[in-house]
Design brief:
mainly alpha; about 0% strand; about 80 residues
Length: about 80
């Protein structure tokens, strides 16, 4: 969340901290799980990867996410 340039500061900073905290908690919960895995989706805050609203992923952004999910599935 801290990388979304469309969000104004200090909201971006605050949401970034909270998002990082949630991700770290999720990683610690799922770290030793035998079947589930926490997937860190790639995110590059560049306008070419975002939808017109500047917040949601665009076609290119979703393509990166789908590739990461497919790679995770093939590893498991």
């Amino acid at each position: 969340m801290g990388g979304f340039i469309v969000l104004p500061q200090p909201l971006r900073w605050c949401l970034g901290l909270q998002s990082d905290r949630f991700n770290n908690d999720a990683i610690s919960v799922w770290d030793d799980h035998p079947v589930c895995e926490f997937l860190q989706t790639p995110f590059v805050p560049h306008h070419s990867l975002l939808a017109d609203d500047g917040f949601h992923p665009g076609e290119q952004g979703y393509h990166l996410w789908a590739k990461a999910v497919a790679e995770c599935i093939t590893i498991i």
